[in-house]
Write a structure and sequence with these properties.
There is one protein chain. The protein has 428 residues and is α/β, with parallel strands linked by helices. It has helices at 46-58, 73-80, 103-115, 127-158, 174-185, 191-196, 206-213, 220-250, 255-261, 269-279, 289-295, 321-333, 340-352, 354-375, 384-387, 391-411, 418-427, and strands at 12-18, 22-30, 35-43, 63-67, 85-89, 303-305, 308-311. The strands form two sheets. It has a five-stranded mixed β-sheet with strand order 3-2-1-4-5.
Length: 428
């Protein structure tokens, strides 16, 4: 019976159920078999949070657990983190039974689960990294919005019978931008003037460009819409530039880590900053590269019951980190200067498909990032010599492997010893 008793990890702890306007806290003190409970309710104003902090210190409570409800937990954590160990829990680990819950019961349940060590804490980086993360995530949203505006601007011309996007590779290139601005701002269309706007290699496609535009129909209302969309697009470009300036200032203390990650194929400066803003530079918080990859949502799920495996899809985690790593992986497999990831990708997608292969490459890159930040060494995988091996040396390695295989078979009595001489003569 003694083996079934759950061990108390935190003798004095507090469970907090956070909401927008208030939060309910329950301090649990373990003395003997039955724990003692003290419950109080506080508002989320700073004065009340400081009262909550003083109440914790009065009761010698240095360990607090709260559910990561939206952004409501952040103000509470900001004022507690200097002298209290705050554990932020994923809601799925502290979820109570439906139909029998309220704020008081929730805070008590969170405290009880945390007291016996059943609540794993979420990764919360230091304040500098959190501020950098706010900017990189905001930039991610603006870049997504910019892409939507590009598509919207292109659709304006598509519905007006302008098929210029079928001729040019980029509707926002110099030649295409000059032509679209001319169409939007002019009441008439002069083919000769349109041809004069073409630059470099696009001059050879002058006939195709004119053919794609000939017969277009664009009303004044549609021209106004095109101008509005283009103005918003230019505004987003300017806004992203301002954010990049602030990010460059914030990333100053981590410049060495950024330069270190840039030695990995596929990782550019902006990608390195995004990765650091999501995982920080202290890898001891994750413990191992496998745990980091699991936290980023790059490992297969484990869903088996009654001896049957139901699904091995990757987990829904790393909402911002995973897309960044997949983008890095796509760049890495296209890197012609260093074919390391490209060769591994080719081997994988033949067996597992392109989507699984690119996720596997993203996990390899994140594993490399973990080891680089842990050791401070530049990117240098242990099997790099096998990937970049010259053909002559590769052939020698194949012959050496064959000789080892033959000797192993002879040692186990599976083939005759005379075959070794035959193999040596044929290789010579």
């Amino acid at each position: 019976m003694g083996g079934n008793v759950l061990r108390t990890v935190y003798p004095i702890c507090c469970g907090v159920d956070v909401h927008k306007r208030f939060f309910v806290a329950t301090i649990i003190t373990t003395e003997g078999i039955e724990p003692k409970y003290q419950k109080r309710r506080f508002s989320t104003f700073n004065n009340d949070i400081l009262k909550f902090k003083a109440w914790l210190l009065e009761n010698n409570c240095r360990d607090v657990c709260m559910e990561s409800t939206g952004k409501y937990w952040i103000p509470v954590s900001n004022l507690l983190e200097d002298c209290v160990n705050v554990t932020i829990a994923n809601p799925k680990w502290v979820r109570t039974v439906k139909g029998d819950k309220d704020d008081d019961k929730d805070s008590r349940w969170i405290g009880n689960m945390f007291r016996i060590g059943l609540v794993p804490g979420s990764f919360i980086p230091c304040k500098d990294i959190r501020i950098l993360r706010e900017y990189t995530r905001y930039r991610f949203k603006l870049v997504s919005c910019k892409s939507s505006e590009k598509n919207r601007y292109q659709n304006v011309f598509t519905v007006c019978n302008v098929a210029l996007d079928s001729v040019v590779s980029d509707m926002f290139g110099k030649s295409a931008s000059s032509i679209t601005d001319y169409i939007v701002n002019s009441d008439t269309f002069d083919p000769e003037h349109c041809v004069s706007l073409l630059q470099k290699s696009l001059k050879k496609k002058a006939d195709e460009v004119l053919e794609s535009i000939d017969g277009f129909q664009m009303t004044e209302a549609q021209k106004k819409r095109a101008k509005i969309v283009k103005e918003h697009y230019n505004y987003l470009l300017d806004h992203i530039g301002k954010i990049d300036t602030v990010i460059d200032e914030l990333v100053g203390p981590y410049e060495s880590a950024v330069n270190l990650l840039c030695t990995n194929p596929g990782i550019q400066r902006h990608s390195a900053i995004t990765v650091i803003s999501e995982i920080g530079t202290d890898m001891s918080q994750f413990g191992s590269s496998k745990r980091l990859c699991r936290w980023a949502g790059l490992t297969p799920g484990n869903n088996a019951s009654a001896g049957k495996k139901k699904s091995v899809r990757i987990m829904r985690a790393g909402v911002y980190l995973k897309p960044a790593l997949v983008e890095i992986a796509h760049a890495a497999v296209k890197d012609k200067k260093n074919p390391y990831y490209a060769i591994k990708y080719e081997r994988l997608f033949k067996r597992r498909g392109k989507k699984r292969a690119i996720i596997a490459i993203a996990r390899m890159i994140l594993t490399a990032v973990y080891n680089m930040l842990s050791t401070g060494e530049v990117w240098n995988p242990s099997d790099l010599d096998q990937i970049d091996m010259p053909p002559e040396l590769r052939e020698k390695e194949v012959q050496k492997s064959l000789r080892r295989a033959v000797k192993l078979l002879v040692a186990h009595g599976l083939i005759a010893p005379d075959l070794i001489k035959f193999t040596e003569l044929s290789s010579a």
